[in-house]
Amino acid sequence: MMKNAGNDPLFTLTTGPVDAYPAVLRALSMPVWYDYDPAFLACFERVSRKAAAAMRTESIPLILQGEPVLALEAAAASLIARHDVVLNLVSGVYGAGFGDWAGRYCATVRELAVAYNEALDPAVVDRELRRHPEIGIVCLCHHDTPSGTLNPVDEIGCVVKRHGRLFLVDAVSSFGGMAVTPDSCRADIFITGPNKCLGCPPSLSLVAVSEGGWRKIKANPDAPRASVLSLLDWERAWLADEPFPYTPSVAEINGLEAALDGYLGEGPEQVWARHDLTARAFRAGLRAMGLSLWAARESIASPTATAIRVPEGVDEAQWRALAREHYGVMFSSGRGETLGKVMRVGHMGPTARPLYAVVALTALGGALNRLRAGRVDVGTGVNAAMAVIG
Ligand SMILES: *Cc1c(COP(=O)(O)O)cnc(C)c1O
Asked: Contact at 8 Å (CB) between 361 and 381?
């Protein structure tokens, strides 16, 4: 009998933190350089340039020394001045959460929200901006991970720019797994991290700031300086002859370089294609097993994570625990409003490989059958996934 209780997971198919690429793990174990060793100064500049190449943007992205929640809060603190009016677009837990940070730095945060299994409509954003010329900044979470749903970020970016407003995008769990870049969505601040689709451990953030974004930050008298929440402190730190505001996470920068080399070497389009194929194979299997998506429509389901609607009468925590204990497969729970309602499977970085769809289906189906005594046909699910994989 297969029983894995207490042992290491055999497969970490989560929505972040994710399993890291072996090359990243090797890079993390390199000697730790002094931060002002010329070799590390050159390394930091090189990695910053590689991040710009991966993000397909001219301006060199900032590498902040903490996982992306740091970058989200720092972006709010740096960009939003006390007299600003912010429009926060909400389709899930992360989108809603950003409103709390925004509200710390200005008096008026308007919220435009949809159900947490839905996506925002660019036409509705357009109407809101026409009605409210006082709105200066629009904030959006591209892939709200606890819902597994995507917003049409490029289209919304078009609308925001047509109205001449600033656009802040949380692309933490989408960048690197699909076609989205700071320029594609015209973001003034584009926040992502290496700990989702780039396959690194949680530790760093990447922040691309447009020229307009920098202008706004520099005009904001409240933008933090000499603070861990400061973006300004890091503006020039990527240059080998400029100082760091504080010690960077040396080992993690090595890990990030390995991840960026892997991403650029494989080719972003190829990387996105395997994320997409893995998600499609997994969803075909789910449907064949009689399970359904949390997303209202498959067209808004993210290629980097699938949120499954927990079947009636099933306890999500029990289901997830059984998959972990009996099959050694770790999945993610929902969060906030989706907690208990969804089970989430990540297709991110090293786990965005089509055969992991089969692993996920067998563990999910097997665990469900152990809970409910044989009501799911795992074989049918595997066949449906294999028909997509080919
Ligand atoms: C993972 C993630 C973050 C970072 O937050 P943590 O919960 O601390 O990992 C931010 N935004 C989105 C959309 C994410 O998926």
From this structure: yes
Specify the residue with its C-alpha closest to ligand 1, atom 12: 172
Predicted confidence band at 373 (pLDDT cuts at 50, 70, 90)?
Answer: low
Cα(326)–Cα(6) distance, integer angstroms: 10
Residues forming beta bridges with residue 127, ordered by sequence position = none
- End-to-end C-alpha distance for the chain, whole angstroms: 30
Tell me the CA–centroid distance for residue 323 and ligand 1, in Å: 24
Q: Give the atom of ligand 1 at the shortest distance from the alpha carbon of 173.
A: 15
Residue 343: name the closest of 332, 359, 335 by CA: 332
For the chain, list the domains and their CATH numbers: 11-19+268-389 (3.90.1150.10), 22-265 (3.40.640.10)
Residue minimizing CA distance to atom 11 of ligand 1? 172
pTM as predicted:
0.97
Task: Extract the annotated binding site for substrate.
Answer: 344
Q: How many Cβ atoms sit within 10 Å of the Cβ of residue 34?
A: 11
The residues facing 312 across adjacent strands are none
